[in-house]
Amino acid sequence: MTPLADVPFSILDLSPVVAGDSVSDAFQNTVRLAKLAEELGYNRFWLAEHHNMPGIASSATAVLIGHVASHTSMIRVGSGGIMLPNHAPLVVAEQFGTLASLHPNRIDLGIGRAPGTDPETTLALRRQPTSLGQELPALLKELRSYLSPPYPGQRVRSIQSEGKEIPIWLLGSSGYSAELAGRLGLPFSFAGHFAPEQMMYAIDLYRRVFTPSEHLEKPYVMMGVNLLIADSVEEANELASSQILSFLSLLKGAPRQMEPPKPESLKHLNLQEQAFLHQRLQSSIFGDKDLVTEKISELLGRTHSDELIFNTMVYDFDVRLESYRILADIGNLRLDPSPSIG
């Protein structure tokens, strides 16, 4: 089994807006968390693109990445991810080229294909709802052309990104992006925090079709994990009820800000809600330090992931910080920082 100290740990942040707080509060908390992550030895700090969700403030992802990078000095900062079909590839290249110019060798560009929102907002983003992300290969090819050295006579260029080291990752929750990442020889980050039922299929497919490239000699898998650590298993499960109830509100098409823990509400779920939670939470890890250590070891034993990226969503921000402190201790991050891609 892979020793925990040999696997880099990273953080995925959605800049959550909890009930009673403002968007400004969420951004301040994101910076505080990023500073702590850097201090504790986490490998990278990623922010995710979601739209029209009252409880998530990271929709202007590139802007927030720049803000976080300007308040830190070493940790890698990037997107987990940018939903490429929402954007013109040239604009993404210019944004991330600018970020890489301001913060050399610290910026990651994680790419996804889902809209990250509801159908109405998808239309507001100028997307065709019937495309289902099938345009991703063409958009990715165009984006990569802007990140490469210019060819003679090239008429359209992203001046900011030329010659910059901007690692591209593909993100996914199914086999589609896994296969594309493998065939292109790119690192792959699987969304185990919300699609665990596809986990083994996707990473096995990625490794099976992987073709070495100038960017990557062998497959590299980063696994997304929901995680919450508390003093006891019972306390962790109680605190996690805030995130679970947020999941349910999303299922009902009424996303909202995260509310204080209400474990008693989980005792009155219908069969559809129970099935949804069973599907979404089967790879989530909630518990005390000992249980979490055991579950992370089991996950690594099953997936052989090269890196883990953790998403801790809880109402009390101080609890969130403490959970990441304990996780850093589990991974011995300050004692043995591990090298990784980028």
UniProtKB/TrEMBL annotation:
Q: Which residues form a coiled coil?
A: none
The entry lists its GO molecular-function terms as: oxidoreductase activity, acting on paired donors, with incorporation or reduction of molecular oxygen
Luciferase-like domain residues are 14-297
Q: Which Gene3D superfamilies match?
A: Luciferase-like domain
- State the InterPro entries in the record: Bact_Lucif_Oxidored (IPR050766), CmoO-like (IPR019949), Luciferase-like_dom (IPR011251), Luciferase-like_sf (IPR036661)
Give the family this protein belongs to, as stated in its UniProt record. Answer: To bacterial alkanal monooxygenase alpha and beta chains.
Stated name of the protein: Luciferase-like monooxygenase
Q: Which organism is it from?
A: Leptospira ognonensis
